[in-house]
Each structure stands twice: as structure tokens, then as C-alpha cells.
Amino acid sequence: MSKIALVDDDRNILTSVSMTLEAEGFEVETYNDGQAALDAFNKKLPDMAVLDIKMPRMDGMDLLQRLRQKTQMPVIFLTSKDDEIDEVLGLRMGADDYVKKPFSQRLLVERIRALLRRQEAVSGDAVGAGPEAKVMERGNLRMDPLRHSVVWKGKDVSLTVTEFLLLQALAQRPGFVKSRDQLMDVAYDDQVYVDDRTIDSHIKRLRKKMRSADPDFSAIETLYGIGYRYNEE
After folding, report:
1. Is 171 helix (H, G, I), strand (E, B) or coil?
2. What backbone torsions phi and psi does residue 96 show, to the nearest 5 degrees?
3. What is the DSSP string of 89-150?
4. DSSP states of 63-93
5. How many Cα atoms sit within 13 Å of 40 on the Cβ side?
6. How do residues 104-152 score in pLDDT, each as one tens digit?
7. Under a CB-based contact definition with an 8 Å cutoff, are residues 161 and 72 in contact?
8. 55-59, 157-161, 168-172, 186-190: which has the minimum mean pLDDT?
9. CB burial class (10 A; 0-12, 13-18, 19+) of residue 150?
């Protein structure tokens, strides 16, 4: 049973969503502000967190930033209906996905299940895990899905589930172009729609993390209007 942390200052959302998730077989912990959630997470982490952005004491952005200093557990943001800035900033800070308010609870459940499946696939725990679970080496890059580890020029790089899957997809075939649609298929289930901006934001953060290990990192090339390509160094 996966444990989901739901963090929102709207008690109606906490009550209704937690009831839905529990009915779907999840264990749910609820918090009405970011600080309360952080205090609990410092003692024991859940399997995934669903965070509202605008909250008292500590908002979702601040909470995510603190979480990413210690864990790459999956995070879904709940964003305002028309606030695209929240979506882009949240993804660039390390969220794996977002759902706009007001939202269908069925959609949220599907997003949660999809993200947990992606995490399972990356860790190699999925039944019948295939070649994607094997250690991959491409020049200066070494990826070990079973340990969810990425090493670039001997330095560890900590990636979220989504970032790991995107890098793995690109590096599997150096020199070949992956369109945004192809990368969406890798990182998201078929029933989950995301737009180009989502993939671009993940790639931007992925590059930033790789450059923190190597300021000269340039293996991921953008082909404007086409997609992305991994060039082996």
C-alpha cells in the first residue's frame, strides 16, 4: 500500500480527496500547511506528496525546495486554474507533475498511479522489467535504474523519476532525435496529457542538474521545432 501525503490548506479538499484515495487503496496523511508537512517528513517520508502551492506558514514551492535537498520522491503540484507561472516554476524546481484546480478527483488518482508506475519502472521493480533496468554507460554517463543512480564524470547527480526517464530515453540512442511527443510517451502514460512546455521544463532542470556536476555539460542538444538529441561525449 503506497502512502500519499496530501498537503493543502483547504480542509474540504483534504477531506474529499483523502476519502477518494483511501477508497482506491492508498494510505493517506493530510496536512494543512507546508511546515506541518515538513516536520512530519523529517521523521518519515511518504511514497509521494501532493502539494498545494499557496498555503500559510510555508507554501508549496518552499516545501518542494526543502524536500529536494534531501529526497527525490515523486511530487505532484496542485496549481491555480490560470496560473501558468506556477506550473512552469514548479516543474523547474523539481515537481514531477501538476494538476490544475478545480480538478477531477479521478484525474488526480490517474496521475498518482501513473507516477507511481513510472517510479516502479525506474527502480526495476515492475514485473517483467526489461533492458531498461540494466546499467547503461554512454561515455561519461553511467545510469543504474535499480539504484536510481546517475553518475557523470565520476560525480553523482540526483534526479527525479521524470528526469531519470527522460535522460535514459535520450541516452539509449545517442545521435538520434527524440521528439517531444516521444518523450511524453516515455515519461507519462498514454492517458495523461501534458503539453510541450512540461517536457521543456523538465529538460531545462535536467540540464541544470548535470551542469552542477560539470559546468561544460552539453550532451543534450535542442533541435528547435523538432525535439532533443543526446550526443555522446
Report:
1. helix
2. -90, -25
3. HHHHHT-SEEEESS--HHHHHHHHHHHHHHHHHHHT-STT--GGGS-EEETTEEEEGGGTEE
4. HHHHHTTT----EEEEE-TT-HHHHHHHHHH
5. 15
6. 888 899 889 988 887 777 665 544 455 556 889 998 999 998 778 899 9
7. yes
8. 186-190
9. buried
Query: Position 78: which residue type?
Result: L
CA dist 29 to 22, 80, 122, 223, Å?
10, 22, 25, 43
Residue type, 47: D
Beta-strand pair 155-157/149-152: antiparallel
Peptide bond connecting 56 to the previous residue in cis, omega within 30 degrees of 0: no
Do 172 and 136 form a contact (C-beta atoms < 8 A)?
yes
φ and ψ of 4, to 5 deg: -110, 130
Q: Which three cell numbers stand for residue 82?
A: 490560470
